[in-house]
Each structure stands twice: as C-alpha cells, then as structure tokens.
Amino acid sequence: MMSAIEVENLVKVYKGGVRAVDGISFSIKEQEIFGFLGPNGAGKSTTIKCVIGLLRPTAGTIKVLGVDIQRDPGVVKRNIGYAAQETAVDDRLTGWENLYLQGRFYHLSRAEIRRRGEEVLKLFGLWERRKDTADTYSGGMLKRLDIACALIHRPKILFLDEPTLGLDVQTRKTIWEYIEHLRAEHKMTIFLTTHYMEEADMLSDRVAIIDRGKIMALDRPGALKAAIGGDLVTVRFSAEDGLDGLLSALRALPGVREVRELRDGIHRIVVERDGDRLIPEVVRLAQEHGIGIHSVRLKRPTLDDVYLHYTGREIREAEGSREELIRTRVMSRRIRR
Ligand SMILES: Nc1ncnc2c1ncn2[C@@H]1O[C@H](COP(=O)(O)OP(=O)(O)OP(=O)(O)O)[C@@H](O)[C@H]1O
Ligand SMILES: [Mg+2]
Q1: pLDDT of residue 242
Q2: DSSP-based three-state secondary structure for 50
Q3: Whose CA is nearest to atom 10 of ligand 1?
Q4: Does the pLDDT value for residue 247 go beyond 90?
Q5: Do domains 3-225 and 230-299 have the same CATH topology?
Q6: Residue to mutate, 40, 215, 316, ligand 1, most ligand atoms under 8 Å from C-beta
Q7: Is residue 325 within 6 Å of ligand 1 at its C-beta?
Q8: Burial class (CB in 10 A: 0-12, 13-18, 19+), 227
Q9: pTM for this model (two decimals)
Q10: Domain segments of the chain: what residues?
Q11: pLDDT tens-place string over residues 89-119
Q12: DSSP characters for 121-171?
C-alpha cells in the first residue's frame, strides 16, 4: 500500500531563529489515524503547516500521496482538508454560508455544494442549525462546523490540528466518533495533533510523541506502553509462612518480569502483558501453597507514563503552563489599559 504521507528530515526554523521542527521523519499509511502528541510549543502545528504547504520547510522532503509537495502543490491541496487550531469559521455568517463559501473556494458547482453540504452538515449534527449565524453556536458546534468545512471537497487526507482543544469531555467524545466514522465510512487518512493523552490513546492507530521539535517515540499506543513497562499486578497475601516458595513459583511463570515486596505482605508483580490473565494463576498458586489473598489490583501503564518517560515532564504540567500563559496575557492587557 502506498503511504499517504512521507516526511523525511523535516526542519523548520522561523525567522528570528526558533527551531520549531528539528529534523523529523515519519510516514502515515492510507486510512490510518495518526496522532501527534506533545506539549505546547513542541512543533505540532508547524509540522502540519509544512505538510499541507502553508509553510515552506527550511529543509527536508514531504510527499503527499506520492507527490512531492514542492513540485506539485496543486495536487496536494486538492486532496487534503485542514481544520486549523484556531477555527476559521466566520461567525457573522450562518453555518450554511460558511460551508457554501468553502465550497466555492474549491470551485465546486452550486449543485455539488448543496449535495455535499447537506451530507456533511447532517453527519456533524448541524443540519437543523444551518440557518443560524455561527455567533449563536457553542464551542463544540463551531469546531464541528470547521471540520465540516474542511470536508466539503471530499479530501482523501484530513488534517486536524487540536480538534477538541478546550471542549468538554462529552463533546470531545462526539468528535472522536465523527473522526472514526470518517475513516471507516469514507476511507480517509487522518493526521491529528493533540495534547490530550486520552485522545491520542483512544483514537490513533499510531502515536508520535513530539517534544522540542523532535520525535521522541513513535508506535502503536499499546506498544509504547509495553515498551516502558508491562502491567502491574499488586497482591496482598495473608500469611508469611511458605511465602518464599510461592514467590519463586510466581517468578517462574511465563511473562513475569519481576516480583517484589512493597511492604507488609503487599507484592508487586510486573508482567510483560495480559496482567488480567495472570490473576487466576496467582490465585491458584497461592491456594497450592496454602496462602490466602486479601486483595489483588491490576494497573496498566497509561500513555501518561509513556509521555513522562520520554519527555521527563507530565502533560498536566504543560497544560498548567498554558493556563499560566493565558492568565499572564490577560494581566498584561489589564496593565496596559
Ligand atoms: N510564526 C511564527 N514565528 C516564529 N515562531 C513561531 C511561529 N509559530 C510558532 N513559532 C514557535 O515555534 C515553536 C513551535 O510552535 P508550534 O505552534 O508548532 O507548537 P505546537 O506544538 O503546535 O504548540 P501548541 O500545543 O501550543 O499548539 C514554538 O516555540 C513557537 O513559539
Ligand atoms: Mg499547535
């Protein structure tokens, strides 16, 4: 299968010297949902803008559907849709007018716009509100309208820069469903950026963790989690007698990496994968050794742990600094007044 996107050694240095993207390479398969996960300023938006031809790269090559974007930008632009981090909706126009305008940009006929416009507005649950001006829309509706506009010309590849930024959990989940639908029903390739761990985890086939312009890790979410450590099974045994025999038996089980006492009878078993399947084995062996079990707990590493491992920072910390930044901006505006 041909790659939808191939990026090799992409570098982007802005005027003034900020090295926003520092030599990254990746390729995205057709019909893949590929997630770019990283903190503020990591270079996610810059990468997208380079790939869609909105920014000129400082170095590197980019191919979209096998075509070099420097050589033939027209082919690329016709085949992609882009919903920017800041929504491009004009809120003095109605939902329908926004869509219509977008369709005209792509030189679609009126009949085509009418047909496709109805399709995407219904798909995104906006059909009933199409005649209302966008300034009456909620944040979630604006984002949905923005994505709908990016779909009017039926692109093969959809670029979504922070599709759910600032939206509540429920709305975020609705947008995830739309994204999955687009891939399943319309065979689209989707490149999205996010700094929501859960979003990258739930939605992406593969995730690249990007930090300070570099890709720190790239794999399926499950593989990323497995690479930094397996499932953790924490067991609290009731007796001390005969425990050593039991612990050796546990260590001999296939997939078990480590068995360690945390404190008073509580033991942690690190298993490569399928921690849930280990639990009955633990119970059976404990019975064989005449040892009771007070409690068993299973914990899977989250993408949070992966992120922390590769960037040395927690994503929450990065979000905190964004709030800090916004607060600072508001304050400086007040001071100027
Ligand atoms: N037009 C510009 N001129 C100069 N520097 C820029 C410009 N746009 C972005 N940068 C800088 O490039 C770096 C990467 O920015 P970018 O917007 O790509 O990050 P991001 O990962 O999308 O962040 P966020 O999560 O905040 O959207 C940052 O240091 C940013 O300040
Ligand atoms: Mg961004």
Answers
A1: 82
A2: helix
A3: 20
A4: yes
A5: no
A6: 40
A7: no
A8: middle
A9: 0.78
A10: 3-225, 230-299
A11: 998 999 999 999 999 988 999 999 999 999 9
A12: HHHTT-GGGTTSBGGGS-HHHHHHHHHHHHTTT--SEEEEESTTTT--HHH
Tokens 């990323």, residue?
A: 224
Residues 6+ apart with CB under 8 A from 295: 235, 236
Q: Coil, strand, or helix at residue 215?
A: strand
- Quick check: 327 pLDDT over 50? no
What dotted CATH number matches 230-299? 3.30.70.100
CA of 142 to the centre of ligand 1 (A): 23
Q: How far is CA 107 from CA 120, 152, 220, in A?
A: 17, 11, 38
SS3 at position 293? strand
Q: Which atom of ligand 1 is nearest to the CA of 38?
A: 21
Structure token digits, residue 121: 């507005």
Contact 251/268 with Cβ under 8 angstroms? Answer: no
CB 237 within 8 A of CB 292: yes
d(CA 16, CA 68): 27
Cα 131 to ligand 1 centroid, rounded to whole Å: 36
pLDDT tens digits, 66-78 = 999 988 888 888 8
* Superfamily per CATH, domain 3-225: P-loop containing nucleotide triphosphate hydrolases (3.40.50.300)
Q: Which residues surround ligand 2, an ion (CB under 5 A)?
A: 44-45, 85
